[in-house]
């Protein structure tokens, strides 16, 4: 039952990615405007448990707690800190941390944990403190869609769904920091 609810939710959210300017894959079938999600990667077991809290949360302690990636400091520093300790790359994996670069809008960068892979350019993340007002800042947001909008399909530029359900501006990304093998295999 839970799996059916999760798959239904993913199908609903996949409609958020459809737009007039986004090419749709050719399935060879007549389209009635309904998007179908296939091959959704949902092994949430790679995410460590996180107890609900009313405390104000930043993205860094949340990402560290659920990914098992032991990096400290501002989010924009994670990519360089991970260099000699963790594998890094340009392909999403469930449990990996998506590291956004520091910008004038993201003064400390941002990190989010991959919760599901919808296809090669669409993922869902869990992350904290991705809000625009006092109601949404400092909270954990689960399974929020992220789309790769980079010209080379390398996840160097992303758009993240905001808390009002629309995709915001384009953010530059370093890439993904992968979980240690022992963490990924244990969960």
UniProtKB/TrEMBL annotation:
Q: Where do the Peptidase C51 domain residues begin and end?
A: 34-159
Organism, scientific name = Thalassospira permensis NBRC 106175
Q: What Pfam family does this protein match (any one)?
A: CHAP
Instruction: Provide the protein name.
Output: Peptidase C51 domain-containing protein
Q: Where is the signal peptide?
A: 1-20
Keywords (alphabetical) are:
Signal
Q: Which PROSITE patterns does the entry mention?
A: CHAP (PS50911), PROKAR_LIPOPROTEIN (PS51257)
Tell me the superkingdom of the source.
Bacteria
């Amino acid at each position: 039952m839970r799996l059916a609810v999760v798959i239904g939710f993913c199908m609903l959210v996949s409609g958020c990615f459809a737009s007039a300017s986004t090419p749709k894959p050719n399935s060879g079938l007549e389209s009635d405007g309904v998007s179908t999600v296939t091959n959704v990667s949902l092994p949430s077991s790679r995410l460590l448990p996180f107890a609900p809290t009313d405390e104000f949360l930043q993205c860094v302690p949340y990402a560290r707690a659920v990914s098992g990636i032991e990096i400290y400091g501002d989010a924009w520093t994670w990519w360089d800190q991970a260099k000699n300790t963790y594998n890094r790359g340009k392909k999403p994996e469930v449990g990996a941390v998506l590291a956004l670069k520091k910008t004038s809008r993201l003064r400390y960068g941002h990190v989010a944990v991959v919760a599901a892979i919808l296809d090669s350019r669409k993922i869902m993340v869990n992350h904290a403190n991705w809000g625009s007002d006092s109601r949404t800042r400092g909270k954990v947001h689960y399974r929020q869609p992220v789309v790769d909008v980079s010209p080379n399909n390398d996840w160097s530029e992303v758009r993240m769904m905001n808390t009002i359900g629309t995709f915001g501006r384009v953010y530059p990304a370093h890439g993904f920091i992968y979980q240690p093998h022992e963490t990924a295999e244990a969960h």
